[in-house]
C-alpha cells in the first residue's frame, strides 16, 4: 500500500510542474523585427545634453503571442553595436542614459536607447545600456502578448556638431529565454542633417535732428532722442546674443560714444539706449533672431566745456549664435 501512495505523490508533483511551465510559455513571434533609421534635422550647435530628435523604433513593439495572462514573460535583449562608443551619461526627463557617439566621428550628435516593454495596456520603459545584455523579467506587464522593443534618440553634444550620412550603428536581438527559438532582431542606423545658423546685420546710419544749446542746459541733460531699428536677417528662429562696442574706444563700458574725428561740438556725445535705458557698451543681451534690434540714440551733455557743432559717434553691433 505505501508504494501506490508514493507513485501518486510523484505524479501529482509532475503535473504541477507542467502546469507552471505552461503558464509561463509564449507560443509564437508576433513581429520578427525590422530597421530603425533615426533622422535628425536640427541646428549644428546647441547646449549640451538636450534631446534633439523623437524616439524612433523599428516597425512596432510587438514580440510574442500566446503568453500567460497571469504572469510576466521574460525577455533577454542582446545588443551588438560595433559602431558606437560610450561618451558619458546624460539625464533626460529625470532618467540617466548612457550616451554614445559613432566610432571615428567625434563631433556627431550623441545617441541614447531605451527599452520599452508591456502588453498594450501596461507599457513601461527604462534606459538601455547598449554595451551589455538586458535580462527583463517583464515586470508587471502580464498578458496574452508581450511587447519588447528598443528605441533610439539623439542628444546634443554641445558646441558645433557635424552632419552624418546614413550610418549603421548595430542591432539588438530579443530572445524569449524559455524558448530561444522565439526571437526578433532590430537594426539601427542614424542620419544627421544639420543646419548652420547664419545671421547678417545691416549697417544703419542714424541722423539725429538738430537741437539748440538751450536743450542741453547742464551736464547730464539729454535731448533729441530718436528710435531706430537695426535690421537682422537670420535663417531660422533661435536665440541670438548681441553686444554693442564703441568703434573708437572698444574697451568702453559707458553708454556714450567717443566723438569721431568729424565731430566739432564740445562736451556733447551721442548716447545709445535700449528699451528706454542707457546701454552698457560691451555687455550682452539676448533676443529671438526674427526680431529687429530696437535701439535709440540721443544727445548727451558731458561735464566741463560746452560748445555747439557737429556731434558724431560710431558703434559696432555684434551678433553671436550658439
UniProtKB/TrEMBL annotation:
Domain of life of the native organism: Bacteria
Signal peptide positions (record): 1-32
SUPFAM superfamilies linked: Bacterial adhesins (SSF49401)
Recorded GO CC terms: pilus
Keywords linked to the UniProt accession: Fimbrium, Signal
Main location: other
A Pfam family recorded for this sequence: Fimbrial
Occurrences of domain Fimbrial-type adhesion (ranges): 190-321
Coiled-coil annotated spans: none
Cellular location(s): Fimbrium
InterPro entries registered for this protein in UniProt: Adhesion_dom_fimbrial, Adhesion_dom_fimbrial_sf, Adhesion_dom_sf, Bact_Fimbrial_Adh_Pro
One of the protein's GO biological processes: cell adhesion involved in single-species biofilm formation
Keyword Signal: yes
UniProt similarity note: Belongs to the fimbrial protein family.
Protein name stated in the entry: Fimbrial-type adhesion domain-containing protein
Lineage: Bacteria, Pseudomonadati, Pseudomonadota, Gammaproteobacteria, Lysobacterales
Amino acid at each position: 500500500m505505501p508504494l501506490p501512495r508514493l507513485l501518486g505523490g510523484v505524479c501529482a508533483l509532475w503535473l504541477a510542474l507542467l502546469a507552471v511551465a505552461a503558464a509561463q510559455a509564449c507560443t509564437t513571434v508576433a513581429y520578427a523585427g525590422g530597421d530603425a533609421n533615426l533622422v535628425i534635422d536640427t541646428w549644428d550647435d546647441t547646449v549640451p545634453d538636450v534631446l534633439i530628435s523623437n524616439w524612433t523604433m523599428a516597425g512596432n513593439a510587438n514580440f510574442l503571442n500566446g503568453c500567460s495572462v497571469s504572469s510576466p514573460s521574460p525577455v533577454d535583449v542582446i545588443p551588438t553595436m560595433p559602431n558606437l562608443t560610450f561618451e558619458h551619461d546624460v539625464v533626460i526627463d529625470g532618467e540617466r542614459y548612457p550616451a554614445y557617439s559613432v566610432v571615428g566621428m567625434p563631433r556627431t550628435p550623441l545617441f541614447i536607447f531605451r527599452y520599452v516593454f508591456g502588453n498594450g495596456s501596461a507599457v513601461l520603459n527604462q534606459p538601455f545600456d547598449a554595451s551589455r545584455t538586458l535580462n527583463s523579467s517583464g515586470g508587471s506587464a502580464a498578458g496574452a502578448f508581450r511587447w519588447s522593443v528598443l528605441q533610439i534618440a539623439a542628444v546634443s553634444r554641445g558646441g558645433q556638431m557635424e552632419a552624418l550620412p546614413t550610418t549603421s550603428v548595430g542591432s539588438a536581438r530579443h530572445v524569449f529565454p524559455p524558448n530561444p527559438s522565439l526571437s526578433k532582431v532590430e537594426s539601427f542606423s542614424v542620419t544627421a542633417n544639420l543646419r548652420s545658423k547664419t545671421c547678417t546685420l545691416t549697417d544703419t546710419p542714424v541722423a539725429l535732428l538738430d537741437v539748440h544749446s538751450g536743450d542741453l542746459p547742464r551736464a547730464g541733460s539729454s535731448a533729441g532722442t530718436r528710435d531706430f531699428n537695426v535690421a537682422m536677417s537670420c535663417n531660422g528662429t533661435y536665440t541670438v546674443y548681441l553686444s554693442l562696442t564703441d568703434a573708437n574706444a572698444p574697451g568702453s563700458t559707458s553708454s556714450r560714444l567717443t566723438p569721431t574725428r568729424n565731430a566739432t561740438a564740445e562736451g556733447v556725445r551721442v548716447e545709445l539706449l535700449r528699451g528706454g535705458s542707457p546701454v552698457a557698451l560691451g555687455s550682452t543681451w539676448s533676443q529671438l533672431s526674427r526680431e529687429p534690434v530696437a535701439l535709440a540714440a540721443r544727445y548727451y551733455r558731458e561735464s566741463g566745456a560746452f560748445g555747439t557743432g557737429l556731434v558724431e559717434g560710431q558703434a559696432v553691433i555684434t551678433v553671436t549664435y550658439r
